[in-house]
Amino acid sequence: MERLLSMRNSNTNLISVVFILLVVNLIVFGAWFYVREKSLLKDGSDKDEQFSLIRNEKYLIEYISNIYNDKKIIFFGSSESHNNYSIPSQLNYMEPQNNYENISKGWLSPIHLSLIFSKIGKLNISIPPIVLLINPVYFTKTHNRIDEGGLGNVVKSTLFIKMNHNNILADLDKDTKNIFKKYFLHNKLIFPFDYQKYILNLLYLSSRQSNFNWENFSYRDKPYKFNHLIPDYSVDKNTWPRYKPVDEFMKKDWVIINDELSPNMIGLKTIFSTIYKKSIPGLVILLPTNIKYYQHIGLDSLEYSRRDLILRKQIKNMAFSNALTVIDLNDDFRLNLGFKDRMHNDEYGFYQICKYLIDSKNYSEFKNSVAQYYINR
Prior knowledge:
Strand order of the largest sheet: 2-1-3-4-5
Number of helices: 15
Strand content: 5-15%
Mean pLDDT: 84
Helix content: 40-55%
Structural class: alpha/beta
Distance between the termini: 88 Å
Shape: globular
Number of domains: 1
Radius of gyration: 24 Å
């Protein structure tokens, strides 16, 4: 008898648990109708002010409009440009006005940046001219991929992409959408659980919103004057003397992938086509490759140079077909040292590049098109 009562109690408890879980799930799924159209503002997941501006559409609209109204140029780069001595900062010193607003983050590579351009593509506002700095390292096996941290530069959660939050994938072309779908395909079986997490993320972030302080807003356009102190270099490595990468054991994956359907090549297609469709002046700058370092560590420098040349031709052809101006710093520019590691230029390297840009015919044509663009607005 006692055993029978125990079994009944167990069944009752199980039914209660199932019922509670059912109710909780119904509440969670019901919350979708409350949060699905909600535009998220600033919250604790935004690491700094600029993250708030580029990861939230409402702020992105005002941010871009301010840049346009102040006749500035957006400069997009990745980790090499997220410092105070980068190309936009040194150009802002060398030229009369602080023209460049620097939007650069580590791992803001083309496939991740394409999500920002997806947002820009659907905005019914005037867009400022754009400079895109391309680091060839993002077309190597180690970097030519989707990265969770890179996605975090442009969205608050990777689930926002998987669930196409606020139709974030709308303006991406078919190939770019497929790159993201392929990335999330491996966890398709846990979609119901991810859907719950997605809604709970929205609910949590919705309860942690705060307004952006536009009164204290300042551009990232500070000028930087090169102090003409040239660092010590290892001539053999073409880097700073103490540079020793912890991932050198992966050097076989440091080779360039010549695949037009690779993630970052596909990302570039979205970026270039958006600039073309918006009819705005666009400049593409291709950074030099540190071939000497790769030769030093035993990679085939001739094969590396061959792949690097193919990559540059692919990018330039794609840019030209979208009426963009291109400056390839491997064409007729020779950098004197100027690398701090295998893929990042230092202050002296960027100084040399900026001096070359200012004297470049293509750069002058781009700046003239910018001036005319703002005159005709």
